[in-house]
Design brief:
Layout: H1 8-18, H2 35-53, H3 57-62, E1 66-67, E2 72-73, H4 76-87, H5 106-119, H6 121-140, H7 143-154, E3 158-163, E4 179-182, E5 188-198, E6 207-215, E7 226-232, E8 234-236, E9 242-245, E10 248-253, E11 264-269, E12 282-286, H8 293-329, H9 352-384, H10 388-424, H11 435-443, H12 452-463, H13 466-489, H14 491-516, H15 520-525, H16 527-550, H17 556-572, H18 576-584, H19 589-592
Parallel strand pairs: 3-6
Antiparallel strand pairs: 1-2, 4-5, 5-11, 5-12, 6-7, 7-12, 8-9, 10-11
Helix pairs in contact: 2-5, 4-6, 5-6, 5-8, 5-9, 6-7, 6-8, 8-9, 8-10, 8-11, 9-10, 9-16, 9-17, 10-11, 10-12, 10-13, 10-16, 12-16, 13-14, 13-16, 14-16, 14-18, 16-17, 16-18
């Protein structure tokens, strides 16, 4: 029976026929691996996602975590799934062998994690956060922090969180007020409140390691004065065992429309609920150097942005597969032009409008998955490059595409879920079917790890001009090479190549004109529109890449790839025309809207 979570056939195509991940095994870091070990990892992920994660997805949504003022309760299946995941050593899939890791390519790891995110986004969030937090500590923590905290995290005994937002300062991190007061023993005492902390409190693991942004008194103003601290729920004794409770208190749980199985807490640090050593404040340990906390946190945030994009893709993908199966089984109506009311009904997949909705979903979810795997391959190439110039180039491509890889799937794979509900008709809106939960879960992803507005400002205001435009130039080189290959192939591929070339050149021209006008405020006012147009153009390039990989190959799977490419170029890429016109005009409608006119 074909999976309703993720298409293994598509993963195999993307990994082996398009990205040719087997070639990574020629690099020393991945030299112990082969197609066999990659396939074994993917098989394991699919099996575990189906057996340990998918069965409790609906219960996880229905019986969400509760807090009685002292203790947070989560359904027992979540703990069992987390323990099974850790026992299979999946927390260390891409880590160095010195940490007990498999040293798998990140590309393969992300493909495997898709299964879990599609099966149960709520449970997977705890593990996703722990992996990212451990990676940050390994990259920027000192030897003791890595040994005492990251070690137990990758064993599955401790879990991790990221504590950025505050009640009065959501995404505006420059305005955080949590403070860290230094002590003579080298520790800090943390005072403040953090909001929207996923995985912020539970008893699924022995300990929770909070990575907390705070300001040391007397430091620079704004983001330049932010430092990063490790603040555990429980302190550790000299031998690494749990000691007394740290002064980290849960003020309450936030009840979201989706990801209900993931605790989302308001946390108070240093309010006196627990006073380790009899002194006020939660004990925290500085990570790295003072006032460089935001740069360290971006290690986790950028990893999380790719993870959010992958999660949005997985939710869109499983919704698409379920809509596809439903459309094949659900009989309703008769073919256009048929006037025989006594003729048998046909499956709804025979209707052109249903095919349109399914094609749209296919183009969104398969395009998004390809983009995420391409970005994760950049991580592998950058990490293992022998030539510093190659590493720099891969890094620049990753810089300009990370925001797109987070935001585009969050917007369009959510739309895929909406279309999947529509294919199901009235059943799509009922809790008996999965689609309404997938939609609710996915609706959080446009907000997770920076809204579309933030990503648009970052893309237009920073990433495209960074390094004197070298990021954009690196991407232009890659896109141009794809266009040249398509033109050389002739036929429909050449037509797609010409269409992409025209839009891409327009993107470059409009980008330059927006800055040349000398009105940066007007330019940035529509940066979200820029993000959408840029993202659609990037996905068009990704689809052309897939079409080239499928070129000359026969069979239904490859015909499906060609049809999805055709759909994207005829239905989706033209959306960018009016958007680029608006951007070129430096339209000031939103700037000039008076708040009293609403």
């Amino acid at each position: 029976m074909r999976s309703q979570l993720i298409s293994r056939r598509d993963l195999d195509f993307l990994l082996y026929e398009w990205l040719r991940v087997e070639e990574l095994t020629a690099r020393p870091r991945f030299g112990e691996h082969s197609r066999q070990t990659f396939d074994g990892f993917l098989d394991l992920c699919e099996d575990m996602a189906v057996r340990h994660f998918a069965p409790h997805n609906k219960r996880n949504d229905r019986d969400e975590p509760s807090f009685d003022g002292q203790r947070v309760t989560v359904i027992p299946e979540v703990k069992a799934a987390i323990e099974a995941f850790a026992k299979a050593d999946l927390l260390t899939a891409a880590l160095d062998e010195r940490f007990g890791g498999m040293q798998l390519p990140t590309t393969v790891e992300s493909a495997g994690l898709c299964w879990f995110q599609a099966a149960n986004a709520g449970t997977m969030a705890y593990l996703f956060l722990t992996i990212s937090a451990a990676n940050l500590l390994i990259a920027h923590g000192d030897e003791q922090q890595v040994e005492r905290f990251a070690g137990p995290m990758i064993e599955g005994r401790f879990s991790g969180t990221m504590c950025l937002s505050e009640p009065q300062a959501g995404s505006s991190l420059a305005d955080i007020v949590t403070r860290a007061e230094p002590r003579a023993d080298g520790t800090y005492r943390i005072f403040g409140s953090k909001m929207w902390i996923s995985g912020g409190d539970h008893e699924l693991t022995e300990n929770i390691v909070h990575l907390v942004l705070a300001k040391i008194p007397g430091g620079p103003p704004g983001t330049k004065g932010i430092s990063l601290f490790l603040v555990p729920k429980h302190l550790l004794a000299e031998d690494g065992s749990l000691a007394e409770r740290n002064d980290v208190a849960t003020a309450g749980l936030n009840h979201k429309m989706g990801y209900r199985g993931t605790t989302n807490a308001a946390l108070n640090f240093g309010e006196g609920a627990h006073t380790p050593g009899g002194e006020a404040g939660a004990i925290g340990y500085l990570i790295g150097e003072p006032h460089r906390g935001l740069s360290y946190m971006f290690h986790m945030m950028n990893e999380a942005r790719l993870g959010v994009g992958l999660g949005a893709t997985a939710l869109g993908y499983t919704g698409y597969l379920k809509a596809l199966d439903y459309a094949r089984d659900r009989a309703q109506g008769r073919p256009l032009g048929s006037k025989d009311a006594a003729a048998p009904q046909v499956p709804i997949i025979a209707h052109a409008d249903v095919k349109r909705m399914l094609l749209a979903q296919k183009s969104y979810v398969e395009g998004a998955l390809a983009l995420l795997l391409w970005c994760n391959r950049l991580v592998d190439l950058k990490q293992t490059a022998d030539d510093p110039q190659d590493a720099r180039r891969h890094g620049m491509l990753l810089e300009i595409l990370t925001g797109v890889a987070k935001s585009w799937p969050s917007q369009w794979c959510l739309e895929a879920n909406s279309l999947a509900m529509q294919v199901h008709g009235g059943y799509g809106y009922t809790r008996e079917y999965d689609l309404e939960q997938h939609y609710r879960d996915n609706r959080l992803n446009p907000i997770h790890e920076g809204t579309h507005g933030i990503q648009g400002l970052d893309l237009l205001g920073r990433k495209v001009v960074q390094h004197n435009g070298a990021n954009l130039g690196a991407l232009a080189e890659v896109v141009g090479a794809t266009i040249a290959r398509a033109k050389g192939a002739g036929g429909e591929l050449a037509e797609h190549g010409a269409a992409l070339e025209a839009v891409w050149n327009r993107v470059l021209t409009v980008t330059a004109s927006m800055f040349a006008a000398g009105d940066p405020v007007a330019a940035m006012a529509n940066s979200t529109i820029y993000l959408e147009a840029f993202g659609h153009t990037v996905i068009a390039w990704i689809w052309l890449e897939q079409a080239l990989a499928a070129h000359g190959r026969e069979g239904d799977f490859y015909e499906g790839k060609r049809a999805a490419t055709r759909y994207f170029y005829r239905y989706e890429l033209p959306r960018t025309g009016p958007q680029l016109d608006l951007l070129a005009s430096l339209d000031r409608t939103t700037l000039e809207m008076d708040e009293n006119w609403f």
